Amino acid sequence: MTGITEGILEAWELLFSLDGEIYSIIGLSLFVSLTSTLLSAFLALPIGVYIANDKFKGKRIIVRIINTFMGLPPVVAGLIVYLVLTRTGPLGEYRLLFSIHAMVIAQVLIVTPIITGLTISAVHLKVDSVKDTCHGLGIGKLKTILLLLNECKYPIISGIMAGYGRAISEVGAIMLVGGNIQYKTRVMTTAIVLETGKGNYGKALALGITLLMISFGINWVVSSIQEGKAYESRNQES
Asked: What is the DSSP string of 159-223?
């Protein structure tokens, strides 16, 4: 118990002393996860809206594949990216392995199916009613899609936030393709694993506390969005 108390005290000391290494790790974690989430959203939203909005052959199979990839094991995603970026791989000439770029690519591979699947589910619930209304009013296809996105904005934002939470908590794929290099590719999750193994519990706890605070913030934002949606629905009904 004494060791835990000492570790917590050391963790708070490191955080409040503005330790350079700690804050460089936190900053890199936020940068990588935010960049990968934005790229994933840029890819996932059009795909999710298209799949939910249109009817085409093989749609059910594609949705099942996306749902399967929503649970893609991070280590498998990391292995795929590693094989693609290694020197003998198809993109080996670009020397992206063990870099921030490789970490972002791995997270995009993990997060994109999550945002896509949640977007499909959100849009699917509203698509028929919005399309019928817009068709009756003679509204064009582009404006119909924009209105559909507006109707689904709360669950879509929640899906993006869920993707961000998944990205910032990732460790397996990041460890494989980033290499956990100090001051270069070391992020909070990989640093926690490393420092715990070295017995530096204070530094590991400092990063763990920060990660918990970020996770709490993400959950708080998602809950606020959902509560706002429920409040808006009650106002519309009344």
From this structure: HHHHHHHHHHT--HHHHHHHTT-TTTT--HHHHHHHHHHHT-HHHHHHHHHHHHHHHHHHHHHHH
